[in-house]
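Appendix C reproduces, verbatim, an entry submitted by the partner laboratory led by Prof. M.T., so that reviewers can inspect both the input and the predicted structure.
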Amino acid sequence: MKYLKNYFYIFCILTLLFSCDNQQTDELMIEKRKLQDQNITFLEYSKLPKNSAPNLNKYFDETNNAKDYLPDWLSSKLYQIEDQSSVVVSYKYKQDRTGDLDNYRKPIITLRSEDYMQLWGGIPFVNTFTPSVSPMTKIPELLSSLSETSEGAVQLVEYNYSKDNAYIKPQNKIFYLKEDFNSANGSLSNLEWDNRTRNSTRRWIMRTYNNDSRALATANGVTEPEKTQLDTWLISHEIDLTQAIDPKLTFDLSLGYFSGDLFFSVYLTLAEDYDMNSWINPAKWVDISEHFDLPTTGPSGYGSLLNRGEFSLKEYAGKKIRVGFNISTTYELDNVKIQEVADQLVVSSSQKKYSLFKYENGKWEMDNGDKLYVLQPEDYNYLNVQYIDDEKASLLIPKILAKKIKTLEGNIKVVYKNTPQSSYADEFSFLNGSWTQISPLFVITKEDRYIYNESENNWNYKETIQ
């Protein structure tokens, strides 16, 4: 029996070896494929070396050429290929932008409240230009402070403009902050308020009752020890009191699900001292809670929203501030206002505009050339976009030119936002009855031919077809 068992083991081993040998022989006998300019579209940029430029950008360029990456990729994708086989690979390629077009690729300057105040010559002012305080004359004053200027430099500027001059509106009710939360979504994430919590998942949310929305923060259902660590804040956006005289802060508040360790606090800080990337240190804020009639007892369910008084922010007039609300139990907050009644410089209406300025002969001037068009807010609205990606400019901008300019002899340069904060430009011409981009497209499709070398077991770049 012992010998039979040994023979059985030997038989199994020989069978396995014979099977493996046959498998290798079968593989060697597989007929290799002959490829003759097989067309391949390269889309797998994610398969390129991690954090390489083509991996991140999803295109190749002169510095990061396709022929430095595609041979390895072809080897990983194609097997059993006959010697001297060829493939044609198409891919995205970013072209160099010649001439002065690259001068237009830069951050947009958006005017701030302090800029308008400076250009209006101090208080009173409005956050807009008018015929008497013209952007054509005032914005160059602002641009003259730029540290880097060279002949031919260009700058796109975003600002407000009113076609009518400003006037004094006596004893006007001025709102520096007016928040009723009626436009908020469920998480308040669409508001410009900072909604933060440190040791809990509980944040401020929106609650609607009888068609009235309010901000709600609650510790109801929170268990120990999380309840004792609850630290939840709702902090306003920047509030500009630059022209204020004696503004008042008011708000409505209700208390519900009463517990003995509740608190509600109201804080103020200068906007310049607020760092949204660091946790809030109450010691650096001014606690103004004592100036309001804050509830200290309440029902087991939701209470009623009541106005809790007002506090004068006179000492903050001329400054920018933020208001913060901090809670540890269930509170509803609504109708947060900072307001006053005073004479106010106003305009009937204003709208956002974009203008291009150019540095020539040692000074900045608005560029109003008839061979230049700067896309305006109504153009982006018409296209239903906030900005125009460089790759889509050749498709979208002709729609605007056909609507606004119709026809034009020669070329026109179009300046547009290619990201929410940056500008760019392309040239177009009216050819054969339609507008066509004549400047180099930002990204084109290129085709390269590669030849397989069996002895080296790799693919070699042969030529660029187009």
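Confidence is low (pLDDT under 50) at residues 1-5, 20-28. Additional entries are available on request from the coordinating office.
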